[in-house]
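Holo prediction — guanosine-5'-diphosphate.
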Amino acid sequence: QLGDTALWDRWLSDEDDNNEDFLYSVLLLGDRGVGKSTLAEIFAGVSEKEEEEEEVMKDHSVYLIVYSVTDRSSFESAGELRIRLRRLRQADDIPIILVGNKTDLVRSRDVSVEGLCRRSLKKVSVEEGRACAVMFDCKFIETSACLHHRVDDLFQGVVRQIRLRRPPRPH
Ligand code: GDP
């Protein structure tokens, strides 16, 4: 199962290019309820996609694989989605950002007891997220969509990925 998707697309003004606009699209993938629509709505309008799985996955500027740091099974789904994406776009250098959302819910994620750090089994630590991104060979960020925390950084990351991959303009 692919899981849920949300799409965000908008015009980006290219300052290096006489403000010539170009359209880009960002596909958000991940389990239902992890915060994809909330994130997408912060940036732009969202259109739900209902096409065939392969069509949905193909040809986006950037892919965000989103999980909730409070939901370990959504973190496991993120791994499966990464594998699917790689299968679909084998030859490509796919721009992917792994996003651990809902950090506002985990202030007490790590509980220190007598010098030991006891971690809740259900919750996903920032170290686990980071390690997963290294394995996936992608960027990583933790956000709180509802507090708008680090959402701007995520947006900057998306723009950076797009700019890095723009073909050079002919002289
Ligand atoms: P989607 O199914 O992945 O598109 O998830 P939604 O964006 O619809 O969010 C599911 C629920 O989680 C909604 O009730 C949101 O308000 C809530 N939610 C989304 N992001 C956050 C967050 O960062 N923190 C908290 N506490 N709730 C969030």
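READOUT: The longest strand covers residues 4-14.
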